[in-house]
């Protein structure tokens, strides 16, 4: 029966002590559980607490956490770059194997395991699953040399003695990026053990470390600027940097030196994020039975029978801190305000997110929601009706808005002189209507101050003289206006003159 050891804070002794718990080996790992875990594994980000892994018991304050040690191959579950010729051949199982010495100073059997992504020596009783998933890339540090992640699975009766293992809070990328540039992670707790993608398990100043979420590559030529020794306090059993106590999960051992990474070269701020290797591994830290810190390249150990009964409060709190962080990140993307701005023939309407918050909780204003709408008025000239155009980078559409009508004032500023419809002007007649007949008989009318308009012509004929000849009367007429003709005649037939009447009257019998 195996034991798992944890370092916890003792309120009674007022110091850190190492305690043990049983890690049962009975029971088979279900395929459902394994598949579920495989589907969940993405970019694993480690931020958890420190566990121990050999003997147990209370440590004297003077010796606890006093030094750093290097993890050896025998403390790893899986080691890459394997060559079958380096081991022995078992004719019964038809497998190659070799032995590595664990932290318990005992030999442990490793099985030669072939995968499509490379060959590995794997501790007997464990299996591995290789997935392609780069943990960093596209930033200043470039892409990893290997893009694989090793997942390890503990089988029934697996030999876990002498392994380096530690409880870790695990953040799994949800592949969700917020508008304000934050990434969302799910969080869980798991046991982690050693697994490396190459044949080297070294954690030395000669290796390359990726920090600041892939933005900074720490190499042998600048590691002295980014990795700094931490100061150990024998009374408290804690490490500090620049006078500030450093959480255990942010301590690493490189070339036997316990220290911290800083966010900038020779900086004062301790880096609290994930530390990756050039070959896509994650750097973790455990504690040996003698109190020495050990850093190693880690992978999740899937063991359904493992317990976490001795997990420290700080480890559990780390999970809730990540949940709180995700809630805050999501709230940053809530809409703070609708932004309206004017422009030529229109304007824009956009949405701004909350972004960061002031100490009083007031949103400062962050990224704008993509797809700001530009509104433009078109048409209204050359006889075309007005159209309203709505557009952003994805496309546009227009809405008919009818005609553009403009009323134009006259010189006095109070009279309606003309109306423009879609750029075409139509005069509007206004004012009192007057008329006149000129000397030539032309009839003209006028409204307001507009020019007179001739609507026709009249004549005024007067009889100047007349002459009767028998029964025919001829009248001479003259037009009162200066029109053409000026004079004229009118002939009337069948007219009886007085002489004619008198003559007829003489014939009457008297």
From TrEMBL:
It holds the Pfam family ESPR. Keywords: Membrane, Transmembrane, Transmembrane helix. The keyword Transmembrane helix applies. InterPro entries: ESPR. Residues 1-47 form the ESPR domain. It comes from the Bacteria. The chain crosses the membrane at residues 41-59. This is ESPR domain-containing protein.
